Amino acid sequence: MLRKTCKDVVLFPITIYRACLWLPARLRGDRWHSRVNTALGLLLYGLFGLPLSILLLLEMLIVINTQLMAQPMDDDEVPQQPLSSTSYNPTHHWPGRALEEWPSDLQVTLPGYVDNASQPPDPTLPRDQFYDQLLASYSPTLLHKMGHEPLWDIPTDIFFDGDTDPRNNVSKALSLGTVPAVVHGEVIAETHDAYYLTYMLYHVKDYDLPVREALSDATFHDGDNEGIQLRIDKTSMQVTLVETWFHNRFFLCNRTGESQGTEPIQTRSLFEGGTHIVLFVQSMGHGVRCANPADFDELASNSKILRLASDPDGLIAPGIDDHTEYNIGYRLASLKPWYRLAKTHATSGNHATTLFEDTIVLGTDSTGREIQIGKFFAANDFEKRAWSRPKPPWAWDDRWDDIPVALWHFHPALAFNSHTGETYSEQYHYNAPMSLIFTANESYTVLTSLLTEHYHRAPQQLARKTNPVNRQPSLPPAKKPGIGVQVKRYMNYVIHSLG
Length: 499
Prior knowledge:
Low-confidence stretches: 66-100, 457-479
Structural class: alpha/beta
Number of domains: 3
Radius of gyration: 25 Å
Helix content: 25-40%
Largest sheet: 14 strands, mixed
């Protein structure tokens, strides 16, 4: 009896299937034909049994993955200074379950923080200087976990070796034994009411545990690029929205923990020094998400905290090891070279020297020529044509949302409006990727094509309403989140848990 019970538990998908077939016959007996009972049993299984089986399987995978990915804390690693905040104490509660325990001002102070009391950005300066000040003032604090190959866990300049061909980055990093800590940053857009900033974290290699690498070569690849986009409200100069890229999903966070759009909130935003969003970055896979209180409980284990170096000459380089360090400095590198090289790409292979491989088609110009941009960062393991290959931000495409590929980065106001249900201005005074990648005519064509896909409207209707530089069509009235958002919330949880 015990053996049979254990077998039923282990083989629960089969047990659930058999239970669904058995139940109609048990309830109705011989009053219905056996085929009717079987049909009802299959319907019951499709509606309830199969989803329950999938749910249980996912929960089992999460538990197993948690055990495989667990990183033991070294006994000799203790914080160099305590985690402190005037309004916050570490807690083991997951965000959303105990929001009343979060700091009311969403401010934390992590070990290694030094208040430099720098002046706020000066909007009277020339645009480039003002934007540089914005990038510095709102640069993220990175809580970066270290894995068993720490060289690959340091975010760096994709051009750290002095050339624009990333195919040799792995071999160059191995020969140097180190890479500089660099975050790519850019003010990508300015609208009537906001500034939109992006920060990209490029890693030379994405890797995994040896066991998982042995099971699938999709778990590792040359190059890795993940990051964030954030919105700064012009009136308050506060970061109101942050969206991160976490393994082919957009994770949204804000100050309120609420969303009325098509995307659920992953967590509330936490800031250091008033303006620096605190991000958690995984080891190995390098998924980026907004940090939450549970992350701070493990600061003493295999962690490095990286902040923008106030003095580049005094920059503290990261140790290429898994030792905990709380005062690592990074420098910022512009995304403008990425934009200028976006249309210079090659077919995947070993004989090219371009920054990008393969293409995304974004429409056709007046001469019938396709408008193309690079889809993947070039790499030696180009034969991997899977979703996991490293991509620039315009190639990020969350299949669970209503934003087509490229629109998230090229039209950030619309993306945030759609994901949150807000109605922020879509009148652009400045749009870096559109103006630096495309000509004016190409911008019009690309935007019309992307908006057609987004709105599912006829191109001629959009053409009368759309100006590629200063004006975009307004969003339809925001819909209240429904079952789809609940499904996305659970999928966020699964993807976050499986890493």
